[in-house]
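Work through what follows:
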Amino acid sequence: MTRHDGIACLDVLAAQLHARGWTACITMPAGRLTALSVQDPHDRAQWSDVIAAPGGATGDWWYWFSWAERIGPVHAPAAAAEVIIRALQRPMDGADLAGCQAAHGEGRSDVLRLCE
């Protein structure tokens, strides 16, 4: 798969999330990986970036949370959407929040504007 295939995988995942009423938009920030920014429609503070990238020695492509947690294989976007929704609906502990803020900065107004 190529970078463009990864973007296509994110687009398919975005469609799955949109069908469930969630906000999801692809972002391509300079110097960073292309990501799908996902946001809970009922709690705008609950959001995450998801990437599509190869994992392991086999070269199979997976969806990954920005904190390097594997979500699921790209050939199962509906299941990945369910995992993402469950993860974002659970309360985030202080360690997860600190890691997210360190990786992406406070507020993420650049992504929120793109998703509105």
